[in-house]
Amino acid sequence: MALENRKKRTDRLWLGVEVGLGVPLLALAVMILVIYTRLLGDENLLVYLFGEGIPSRMLSLATLCNLLPFLLSVYTDRYFTARGILGVTVILAILSVTLRLVF
């Protein structure tokens, strides 16, 4: 019975939304850090990050990182959490396509 209660506490839609936003933000932070360490001395980080097609590509890669928590949620039968992750992933994918059209 205790396992079932713990499963219900971790199977929430808003937890999925938080995970769905947190994982891509963490991935974006890691990508920006890696890019910053690889830039040459005369290049500006902001100029590179807002270059042609870079924002949508980075957001697409960050959104792809939601695959692992989504699959873990489905595998452990936490379907409400998976719904939250999937909903945020769809919103981020639409934002990525919009960025691709704008930038």
Comma- or semicolon-separated keywords:
single chain; 103 residues; mainly alpha
The rounded Rg comes to 17 Å
Form type: elongated
Strand share of the residues?
A: under 5%
Poorly predicted tracts of residues: none
Explain this structure to me?
With 103 residues, the chain is mainly α. 81% of the residues lie in helices and 0% in strands. It has 6 helices and no strands. Helix 2 crosses helix 4 and helix 4 runs antiparallel to helix 6. The protein is elongated and about 60 Å long.
Write the layout of secondary structure elements.
Blueprint: H1 2-9, H2 13-38, H3 45-49, H4 54-64, H5 67-75, H6 79-102
Helix pairs in contact: 2-4, 2-6, 4-6, 5-6
Brief characterization of the structure:
With about 100 residues, this protein is mostly helical. Helix content is about 80%, strand content about 0%.
